[in-house]
Amino acid sequence: MTKKNDGDILKRNGPSVHSSNPCFSRREFLFMGGIIFTAATASQCWSSGNSSLIIIEQANGLVVGDPSKCVGCRRCELACSEFNDGKASPVISRIKISRNLNPWISNPGVKQFGPGTFGNGLVIQDLCKQCPHPVPCANACPHNAIVLAPNTKARVVDSAKCVGCKICQRACPWDMISFDPDTNRATKCFLCNGNPKCVAACPAEALKYVPWCDLTKIERPRISPNTFISPSKASTCIECH
Amino acid sequence: MANYGGWVGKTLRVDLSNGNISIENTLEKYKDYLGGTGIGYKVLWDEVPAGTQPFDPVNRIVFGVGPLAGTGAPCNGRTAITTLWPTCWPKSLVASGHMGGNFAAELKYAGFDAIIIYGKADQPVWLCILDGKAEIRDARNLWGEGIRRTSMEISRQMGPRASVAAIGQAGENLVPMSVVINSHSHSAGGVGSVMGSKNLKAIGVLGTGSIRIAGNKEEWEKAVNYHLSLLGANNQHVVPDSPQKWSEYYGPTRWVASPGRRWGAASSSIDTGSCDPHNLNRIAYRTNNAAFFLGERAWKYTVRGNGCSSCPIRCHTILKVPSVSSKYGIPEIGQNTCVGMLFGRNFFRSFPDGPKGETSIEACMVGMSLADDLGIWDNYGQMQRDFQELYYSGILKEKVGSKEFKSYSWDEYEKGSPNFLFKLLRGIALKRDELTTALGMGTGYHLERWGIPEKDWQERPELSYWKMGHPRHHSSEEAGQTGVIINTQYNRDSQCHSHTNFIRNGLPLHVQKQIAVDIWGSTDAIDAMSAYSPMNVYKAKMAKWSILRKELHDSLSICNWMGPWIASPLKEHNYKGDDSVESLLYSLATGNPKSREELDKDSERIFVLHRALTIRDMQTSDMRTKHDTVPKWIFKDQAGKPPFSSGSSAMDPDDIKLAMDMFYSEMGWDLETGAPRTETYQKLGLQDVADVFDRNGLAVG
Ligand code: SF4
Ligand code: SF4
Ligand code: SF4
After folding, report:
1. Can you give the residue ranges of every domain in chain B?
2. What average pLDDT does this structure show over A56-75?
3. pLDDT confidence bin for A241, thresholds 50/70/90
4. Does the beta carbon of A136 lie inside 6 Å of ligand 1?
5. What gap in Å lies between CA B118 and CA B199, rounded to an integer?
6. Among the four residues A193, B137, B203, B598, which has the most C-beta atoms within 10 Å?
């Protein structure tokens, strides 16, 4: 049963496949959340009726990078975009290397010898933290398009719901939402349904897929995010808070 | 026109004289030439009249990349830059330089397969290419700056992801021995001054676009992983240089990883460890060219491997040597590969602490820091060999006059002090005096200026000089007659690695010979290094194949310093690689299926067009005696052993004549002149070349 449902959502989360399934009902959501979610309901919030869903569950895993091993080859970005989307495009890659390859040269905030090829040589891999509740990108989405993947519990863009407004992009403190100009949809790390392509592609063992841990308190934000919560979500929040 | 993947479909055309910028369809015009050097040669044929000089505004400089650049096909980072070569002596002819880094990929993401630049701006400019659009911008405030600062200034304006290809003071001052550099230290030799002559300081590219893979994405993933599984270390060396548990063989290769050898200057030191070839997640640890070229001492200074976009090999090692910052006032971090890394060291005959001591590493750091900022080229180490020879023979002193001679600290030089490099290299970039002006001209023009006959250089094996101002690049010392043939064909050093990457891959001869049967038809195609057999037709086949693969790689944008991949580290495959991996990747990426043979034909068209350009611009079809010449030193063995004896690298004059005969006949060219025949041009779809030669009397029937 879970399998069948997984297949469904995986299709929906595939980066270029549009879903015909308009939205999750509360029943579907509970169903997908499965046992863990049901067990957690006593202390967790969710939406009722037609109001918005809030992601409560934590992801099962996330990809982490070791900058001291990164050799700046960008193979992870290419694997992410080619093997998932059929095109080479660092800009839509959900792991971000290119923007950190050259260092302090164009980042006025960083003085002197920062990381990067023109600096101390370190290349820092930017990766999605699969944030815990409240998930900034998901909560910002006025169209409820950032949802939970059943298998990995990754926070993923449902391309059938996304309208390409880019509000989520401004909400992620780590600037980890990509935008695909060809599909006019946002896209973000969906952990490749449990087999991260970037990890498999890295020639320097610089990436790992590990059980989820909370990096949001540790890693400094990259941008000042818009702390926007869509009104429909805000009304759901009130149910618990 | 079909909707192809791989190519992004547009070529940018910039006339700096009037500021006109236009865009043309790559595929309509250049599909038969693939990209890279193919586009470069085609543009020079169509648009640059015979007799043009490199610094004439009508000369084109073509930055070409191919359908695989910017994709995940392994090792696709090289941009081919084709133009009339300023150091080609006694007359400038067509040639290309190749830079790695991130420029090739970024150009594709910005929406272009090539940039064709001509004319001359009336004041310094830089070219800003941003997502399908280009703009000529004022560079007056960048003129006079080094490459690093120029790159930083432009990146500040364009954004951190921009890739900037810039010239330094050497290129500005029209020093022929100058480079263009992108991504900190990835250079293409020889072309800096051509940019300088156009008042073009730099090109910045930035794109948010994508390159479509036409084939099914699962198949593409499989193909890419398959190609990765065949990869060795740098230069496609497929066995390690020291005994490893997983390895049957070891040999003197660039596969230097081993447990205990560590990237000592990484922020937390990293063991390169065991690099079993089946573990594709450790490919990046196999190579450390600093350790390969500078010795064991370099490990402790190694920060990491760096290199081109998409390449897992990382031949461009980053070193951190803290002492150089206080001692010489240069950044403690430097990076490069091969002759770029050895730039400073190679000027010196000896160092106080030996050839691989601390001082030699400091000399490398000083050399890289200066040369890659001033933008000086060393012509595959020829500049340094010339310098040493001219100094120690006393010619230098005689030619520069005593006042100038005394202005240099020769004591410091003889002692091997890296401090000596500052005055010398800055002088070259500024053409400050007689010595530096002469060195900056390139060997051919330098010798002419100082009244030294070229043949004096061609008699001396230790000078490695070949012809036309340029040195040998993997010739008879490694690959006997095959190496000699390849080195006769170009207008600069041949830059071909197809043959040497196989010969030096570390496999024992009997294993190599089994692979040779598959590729060239006989075990006789190859010999042990310096134990050569007389010429045979299989060596000619190997020479032809090597050249065509070089042109194929330079046109598709895959790295001929890494390919071809006919051998692999896989014992279970008897160490065989795959001769068709280029066709597999090309077909899937573009959606234009082509067999290995069809791509071979494309590369032959490209190479023969290079030949035609050489004939047209030399105004003679007699390539055999006027162009395809060999230096006398190849007929001498340093220990005086005769040709074809064990341990001798000497060639035999009659045997080399036969070698050229066999090569010409493999190519289907005229034996007497070594020129392609009219029917060869026709067969390759080069009717326009045949027509031109028919009219101007250069045709060979
Ligand atoms: S995209 Fe950003 S906000 Fe959303 S889960 Fe990832 S890191 Fe968190
Ligand atoms: S896990 Fe998959 S989607 Fe996420 S960054 Fe890696 S390759 Fe991209
Ligand atoms: S594939 Fe690995 S080494 Fe290469 S850029 Fe990505 S994280 Fe760095």
Report:
1. 10-206, 232-369, 381-472, 473-696
2. 97
3. confident
4. yes
5. 11
6. B203
Residue A42 has pLDDT above 80, yes or no: no
Identity of the residue numbered A231:
P
Instruction: Give the residue, out of A73, A127, A205, with the most ligand 3 atoms within 8 A of its beta carbon, to mutate for a pocket test.
Output: A73
**ipTM score:** 0.96
Q: Please give the class, per CATH, of domain A6-104+113-240.
A: alpha beta
Chain A residue numbers touching B161 (CB-CB < 8 A): 90, 98-99, 101-102
B584-623 burial, b for 16+ CB within 10 Å, e for fewer? bbbbbbbbbebebeebbbbbbbbbbbbbbbbbbbbeebbb
CA of A98 to the centre of ligand 2 (A): 15
Q: Give yes or no for residue B638 having a pLDDT over 90.
A: no
Ligand nearest to the CA of A219: 1
Place of tokens 């432009």: B154
Determine whether the shortest distance from the Cβ of A54 to ligand 2 is under 6 A: no
Over residues B454-484, the pLDDT tens digits come to 999 999 999 999 999 999 999 999 999 999 9
Whole-angstrom Cα distance, residue B434 to residue B597?
A: 52
- Tell me which residue has its CA closest to atom 6 in ligand 2: A198
Q: Is A72 on the interface with B (CB under 8 A)?
A: yes
Is B10-206 CATH 3.40.50.300?
A: no
Give pLDDT, residue B280.
Answer: 98
Percentage with pLDDT > 70 across chain B: 100
A234: exposed, middle or buried (Cβ count in 10 Å: 0-12, 13-18, 19+):
middle
Please tell me the predicted confidence (pLDDT) of residue A104. 61
Tell how far the Cα of B101 is from the centroid of ligand 1, in angstroms.
31
Ligand 3, atom 3, lies closest to the CA of A70
Read off the pTM. Answer: 0.94
Contact A127, A63 (CB under 8 A): yes
pLDDT in tens, B538-560: 999 999 999 999 999 999 999 99
Pocket test for ligand 2, best of A198, A208, A209, A212 (most atoms within 8 A of CB): A198
DSSP string for residues in B445-514: HHHHHTT--HHHHHT-GGGTEEETTEE-SS-HHHHHHHHHHHHHSSSS-----HHHHHHTSS--HHHHHH
* pLDDT tens by residue, B13-39: 999 999 999 999 999 999 999 999 999
Return the amino acid letter for B701. G
Structure tokens at B171: 């290129």
Counted across chains A and B, CB pairs separated by less than 8 A come out at 147
